[in-house]
Amino acid sequence: MKTSVKSLASIVSAGLLATAAGCASDAASSTDHIKSVTWDLRKPTDIKTLGLPENTVDLPDVDVSITLSDGEVYSAQHVYLMIDGDLQNPTRITTIRVGLGPQTIDQAYQTAKEIGARWHISNSYIDGWYKDAKMYPSYSGGGAGRSSTLPGGNTVGLFMPISGNDSKPVYPEFEIDNVNASDLGGTAAASPSPSSTSNSPTPK
Question: Are 65 and 90 in contact (CB under 8 A)?
Fold first, then answer.
C-alpha cells in the first residue's frame, strides 16, 4: 500500500512534535539552572515545596541557605547537596546532606570544629576522629559526631567520607536528619513571614 506525501508529512510532523514535547519535559525536570537554594525546614518540606522535580537526588555546585528547626541558618557556597527521600513516598524528604568538597585532614578538622561548636557536636568525637585520621590517613573516613535533637525536631551530624583525592583525602558532609520533624512528633517553630524566607530554589 502506498502512503501519500501528505500522510508522510503528517507522520513526520507528529514525530517532531513528540520529540519537541520530550525535550520540553526534560528541560522542565532539569536542575541545571538551580544555582542557589533558600529553604526553611520549620515548614512542612517535600520535593514539591522546595520547587524541585520529583526525581531530584542531588544538586551539584550550589549556594545554600537552610533554616533548621531551631531557627539557626546554615549557609555555604559551592557545595554538593544530596537529598534522601522516603522509598514509599518519593516526594517526602528525610535527610539533606551538604558535601563541602575535598579537604586536607587539617582543613576538615577545622571545618568539623566550626560546625561542631555551632551545632553542639561533642569535641570528643571530633578530636577522636582527628587523632585517628592523622595516624591512618588512608582510613580517615567516618563519623565525627552527632548532636542531640534540636528544638523543633531536626538532628544534625557531621561525617568525613574519604574523598578519593590523595592530596585532600577527606570530604566533610554536614547532615540534617528528621527533616520533617513534625511527622515524628516534633514541634516546628513558628514560620517567618513570606518576605524573609523562600521555600523555592532561586536561579542565580
Answer: no
